[in-house]
Give the backbone structure.
Amino acid sequence: MAVDGVASSSSNGAVSSARSTIAGNFDTFLSILTTQLKNQNPLDPLDTNQFTAQLVQFSGVEQQLKTNEFLQALLLNTQTSYRADAVSYIGKQVSASGETAELVDGGAYWAYNADANVANATVNIKDAAGNVVYTETGSLNAGPGTFLWDGVGSDGNNRPDGVYTIEIKGTNLAGNAVQVSTSSFGIVTGVDFSGAEPMLTVGKNKVALSDVTDIRLASATPPKDGEGDEATQP
């Protein structure tokens, strides 16, 4: 939705140039019309209907230019408001749909939402290279919950800080698959406007503004396993 500055300047310049051109042509037209009216043959006067039609055409073009200027101003105002809204996210904690989260100081948080009770759930956490570094099994209650990984891999070794991906799969008592969606937490530290949509900088991640599902004060940290919402149970 965002429009870059070059495109905006180019559009404004085009409208300004068109207005300048039409204004010059209109002045020329009026000058010729006045000269012809002054020098017309009284016995064979000029057909004013043609001049009137041309005046109407010029007026229509003038109105179109004004409409274009209004639309440009409206677009610029919308763009500015959209960016201001994005900047207001800085310093706030957001939840965004997706599977990635950043492991920092021995903790990586994810939120999840199960469509139904999950009798047999498997949680796999992968590193940036796609290798599974941690696996846990258990059960999940239907609805929202949180999962905290302390950064210790299944081999008992501490994993380095960085971006990790979670995958939660599960089935109900009947053995049917249950959909479990995931999202990540993080503090917004910046906003990138280089693309078509503002991207929030959350740790080492880039999160699209449209993917944000929840926003709150940074002091309101997500609950750990066993606190508040139901978390994966080993």
